[in-house]
Write a structure and sequence with these properties.
By secondary structure, the chain is of the alpha/beta class. The chain has a single domain, classed as 3-Layer(aba) Sandwich (Rossmann fold), CATH 3.40.50.720. It has 8 helices and 7 strands. The protein has a 7-stranded parallel β-sheet with strand order 3-2-1-4-5-6-7, with helices on both faces. The model has no long low-confidence stretch (mean pLDDT 93).
Length: 244
Amino acid sequence: MDLGLKQRRALVMGGSRGLGQAIAAALLAEGARVAICARDATRLAASAAQLGAEGIVCDLSVPGAAEAVTREAERRLGALDVLVVNTGGPPPGLFADLGDAAWRAAFEGLWMSSVGAIRAALPGMRARRWGRVLLITSVAAREPVPNLMLSNSLRAGLHGMVNALSKEVAADQVTVNALLPGYTLTERLEELQLDQTRLTAQIPARRIGTPQDFAAVAAFLVSQPAGYITGQALACDGGLLQSI
């Protein structure tokens, strides 16, 4: 299937590793022009060179950084057609262990970075009457994952924004969706130190997902043929949400 992404201009946030890198690779394979951002300059440079993407250093936890990186991507590529909002997961922790500073940092890095990037890209998409906004969230937004209080709470709120915003911009042929990864073979899974054998037994597909599994769905949701899909929060999780 031709996804209609040739020469489309895309920014993939958090694109130097894991899911973001896989999404960037999938879009490039479809002929899109892609910029990626990350805060680790060395890792970013290596990933950008490997992919053939524009690399922009950005720490999304800094107020205003997401808006700035979106504008820089447009300066380099031209007006954006596709925005993939992919922020790093907040650190683990139980409610009793989290102070105000942890909540504020997670809100800034997860919530306000999403708002800032969308705010910067959306007016141009609406004016040109074509755009795709995709937020990468988590199955934790639907079913809380133990010890991930920050992610469980804030990502669920993003789904409310996706639903409401999609209705505001649908007539301008701009779609807004969320894509929820389940357990996927990325560095994040290793950082959480979860028992992969136990996880695999929980998943109806009986395997942990790959970044490429996830990226294929992401590429479709930002494609031309997916123009009638908006306001959705779709899980790519091997059936996990039916079993937890």
